[in-house]
């Protein structure tokens, strides 16, 4: 990506009109909950108009879901400890003040959306809740209409303090951390579909992935679902060092636990935290302490580093990590880490950006975008401010979601003495529209029920439209042919011809020969031809009905095959109000000139 192209993209991004909500007007009274000690927004993958976020209210941290289409803010009701701590005196604490979350009960700020919908098109999410001494995984959902599920969240109790649940890219598995203050390990649940179907009453059988005497945290799935990177604490040379390791799930075959590979061994003098995979699965971004371990005891100042994963040529397994350097030794300097995840990647057509908050009090903690490819190729201008035109300040926890033509950015900013949930849209450039979809699980029972009544409908439900159309047309043609042949059988006419024949022959039977054969006059021939035609019609009708029955059986059997199965469903988005002003791009003497306009979100 050329410097000019990157500059054009950034200026258009900064000059975009940011709008929120349908017509930007109708919101409920609950939107006052968007302001307060708000933190950690997470955009819903199937419906980016829904934002989950945490809110500290005196003695508890609450989990809320905000629907931008309806303006409704719904609180996920979570069990509260019987012995809750005393309420805190200050409702709004400083955004960047270190907080002891042990004093809060309920939601723990760790939420992961499932990257697929279930057969009822419900969007499930996993989160951590508990009190001061116990934390468990809970499962909640948003229904097909975007409303918080009426059922209470499903609790998945396990022996330990659970943290950091993360769904696999296919939505079938869940990895989490369990342990205590002295040690923790990764655990994997392979069949989350069965867990959801039974509402946690069965199939929740975690497999232990690691056996580390120290602590582990923040697992992150590779895009292909084959690897899990995570933050791990190891004791080396009589000192403890946080680093990034990775395990390959295929290593589980025939062994109790997979073999971890330390990726940040070259940075053993520093601490590394919260890995985040690039969209192509070739790189990992992470936070890294600015100071060496032996120079600082707190390591509060952190940068963003990037490593490349190195695979063996024979087995294609990750064997080590290669720390990357570019225009500067580290991609971003002195950043504020995201509360619960690694740096956020944003792929574009010709750029690969990392979004982060710079710890710059004078500039009011702005959001920046760094082009990884430009940085890696040592080109200047790889880092550009992203929030300077938002009209916001003191940012934290930015997250991204793709739009059909652009990007949605959600983050927390500080307004007065409180925080505020902010959501902005960056319209894309003309001609860059894309279709967004999410997988939807299909149910064998639902497919068979549809095919039971109308052949082909089960295949349509499964997304096999061509096969469904063939079965539906074949069934309709068979039944139509059967009805047609049935209509050709005129029993009344046969009876009339029989009566006419009987009237044409002597009553004493003299016409019957020695073999008892009837007289074959014209009336008899007419009766015989009509009777033979009716028999042929009945035979063809039976054959057509037989073919229809065969198609129905084949259709029913086929509708039950091929499961588990998912079908891509388009992602819906709220209609936004027409912007009052838009960025414009003009040229003077061949040089681009930018006119910037701004509107306020919410």
List the topology elements.
Elements (H helix, E strand, L loop, with lengths): L2 H13 L19 E9 L6 E8 L2 E8 L4 E5 L28 E13 L5 E8 L4 E8 L11 E3 L4 E7 L6 E7 L2 E7 L2 H6 L9 E2 L7 E6 L5 E10 L2 E10 L12 E2 L9 E6 L5 E7 L12 E10 L6 E6 L8 E5 L7 E4 L4 E7 L8 E5 H5 L6 E3 L10 E8 L2 E10 L2 E10 L9 E6 L1 H10 L3 H5 L3 H23 L3 H14 L17 H38 L5 E6 L13 E5 L2 E5 L7
Parallel strand pairs: 3-5
Antiparallel strand pairs: 1-2, 1-28, 2-3, 3-4, 5-6, 6-7, 7-8, 9-10, 10-11, 11-12, 13-14, 14-15, 15-16, 17-18, 18-19, 19-20, 19-21, 21-23, 22-23, 23-24, 24-25, 26-27, 27-28, 29-30, 31-32
Describe what this molecule looks like in 3D.
This protein has 602 residues and is α+β, with helices and mostly antiparallel strands. The protein has a domain at 442-570. Helices cover 19% and strands 36% of the residues. The protein has helices at 3-15, 192-197, 372-376, 444-453, 457-461, 465-487, 491-504, 522-559; strands spanning 35-43, 50-57, 60-67, 72-76, 105-117, 123-130, 135-142, 154-156, 161-167, 174-180, 183-189, 207-208, 216-221, 227-236, 239-248, 261-262, 272-277, 283-289, 302-311, 318-323, 332-336, 344-347, 352-358, 367-371, 383-385, 396-403, 406-415, 418-427, 437-442, 565-570, 584-588, 591-595. Strands 1, 2, 3, 4, 5, 6, 7, 8, 26, 27 and 28 form an eleven-stranded mixed beta sheet that branches. A hairpin with a 2-residue loop joins β2 and β3 (60-67). The two termini are 33 Å apart.
């Amino acid at each position: 990506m050329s410097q000019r192209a990157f500059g054009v993209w950034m200026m258009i991004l900064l000059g975009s009109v940011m709008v929120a909500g349908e017509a930007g007007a109708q919101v409920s009274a609950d939107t006052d909950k968007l302001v307060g000690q708000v933190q950690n927004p997470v955009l819903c993958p199937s419906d980016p108009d829904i934002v989950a976020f945490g809110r500290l209210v005196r003695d508890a941290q609450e989990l809320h879901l905000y629907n931008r289409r309806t303006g409704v803010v719904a609180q996920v009701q979570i069990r509260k400890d019987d012995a809750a701590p005393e309420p805190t005196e200050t409702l709004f604490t400083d955004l960047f003040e270190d907080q002891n979350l042990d004093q809060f009960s309920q939601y723990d700020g760790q939420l992961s959306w499932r990257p697929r919908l279930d057969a009822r098109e419900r969007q499930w999410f996993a989160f951590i809740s508990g009190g001061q001494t116990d934390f468990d995984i809970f499962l909640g959902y948003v229904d097909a209409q975007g409303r918080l599920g009426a059922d209470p969240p499903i609790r998945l109790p396990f022996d330990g303090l659970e943290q950091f649940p993360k769904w696999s890219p296919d939505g079938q598995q869940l990895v989490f951390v369990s342990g205590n203050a002295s040690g923790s390990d990764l655990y994997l649940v392979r069949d989350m579909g069965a867990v959801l179907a039974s509402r946690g009453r069965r199939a929740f059988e975690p497999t232990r992935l690691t056996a580390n005497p120290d602590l582990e945290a923040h697992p992150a799935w590779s895009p292909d679902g084959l690897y899990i990177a995570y933050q791990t604490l190891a004791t080396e040379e009589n000192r403890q060092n946080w680093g990034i390791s990775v395990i390959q799930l295929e290593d589980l075959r025939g062994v109790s636990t997979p073999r971890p590979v330390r990726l940040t061994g070259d940075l053993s003098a520093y601490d590394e935290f919260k890995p985040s995979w690039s969209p192509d699965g070739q790189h990992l971004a992470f936070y890294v302490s600015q100071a060496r371990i032996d120079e600082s005891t707190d390591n509060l100042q952190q940068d963003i580093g990037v490593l490349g994963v190195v695979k063996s040529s024979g087995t294609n397994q990750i064997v080590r990590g290669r720390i990357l350097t570019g225009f500067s030794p580290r991609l971003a300097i002195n950043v504020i880490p995201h509360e619960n995840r690694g740096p956020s990647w944003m792929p574009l057509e010709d750029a690969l950006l990392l979004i982060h908050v710079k710890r710059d009090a004078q500039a009011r903690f702005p959001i920046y975008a760094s082009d990884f490819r430009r940085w890696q190729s040592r080109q200047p201008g790889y880092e550009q401010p992203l929030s300077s035109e938002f009209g916001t300040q003191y940012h934290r926890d930015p997250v991204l979601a793709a739009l059909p033509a652009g990007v949605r950015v959600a983050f927390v900013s500080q307004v007065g003495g409180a925080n505020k949930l902010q959501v902005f849209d960056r319209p894309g450039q003309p001609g860059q529209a894309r279709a967004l979809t999410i997988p939807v699980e299909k149910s064998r029972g639902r497919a068979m029920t549809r095919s039971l009544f109308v052949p082909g409908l089960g295949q349509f439900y499964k997304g096999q439209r061509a096969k469904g159309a063939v079965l539906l047309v074949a069934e309709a043609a068979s039944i139509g042919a059967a009805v047609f042949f049935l209509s050709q059988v005129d029993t009344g006419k046969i009876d009339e011809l029989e009566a006419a024949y009987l009237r044409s022959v002597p009553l004493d039977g003299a016409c019957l020969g020695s073999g008892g054969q009837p007289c074959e006059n014209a009336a008899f021939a007419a009766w015989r031809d009509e009777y033979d035609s009716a028999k042929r019609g009945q035979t063809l009708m039976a054959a057509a009905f037989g073919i229809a029955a065969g198609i129905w059986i084949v259709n029913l059997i086929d509708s039950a095959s091929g499961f588990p199965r998912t079908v891509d469903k388009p992602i819906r988005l709220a209609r936004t109000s027409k912007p009052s002003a838009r960025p414009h791009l003009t040229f003077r003497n061949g040089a681009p000139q930018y006119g910037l306009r701004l509107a306020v979100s919410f």
